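Sample pair:
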Amino acid sequence: MDLKDIQSWEWERIYEKRPDLRKVPEPSLDSVIMEFLKQYEVYVKPASTGEHNRAADAVMGGLMGGLGGPAAVGLDSGLRNQKKNAAIQEWTQWKQWALGHEDFPAFREAFKGKTQKHNANVDELLASDLVREEIKHILEEQERLGKEDHVVIRWMIFILLPFALITTISIGLTPTTRETEQERIEREMWFKPSE
């Protein structure tokens, strides 16, 4: 079995059964810095300079404009920008502190080393015949379950489609409630209105 032939959706099924076979992506500099800062009980996240929620901004702008007028919109926008700039400045300061810390290079290498070690272990597992055989069984089981799902879907269509058609036709042929009510009134009247 060649692992290169396995599709991404099949890998997801394999990872459900064997999460230890999932490789870990190489950590970004920001994620390494965040982990380093956690050692010093500093819990900051990278502030984004380019992304924001445009829909939320539009809703808030409309709300502020409707309630407070143009001045309120400008004030709200200024406050949001001020918060964003403060978050960017805070992150930049902590990032520079971490990069300048004497222990950071060793921490960074150790952090990357853990990732590389995990991925090397995954490669070793994937090279073993036992794991390849297990992957083969997982894929065969998935294929069998997929075929069973198709049979169930076919039976559901076979049963539900006629039911839906009969229901639709019977609704179309059933007189409306107003017509039925009118007929009942005419039947119960002991005299007919003069024509």
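The longest helix spans residues 129-173.
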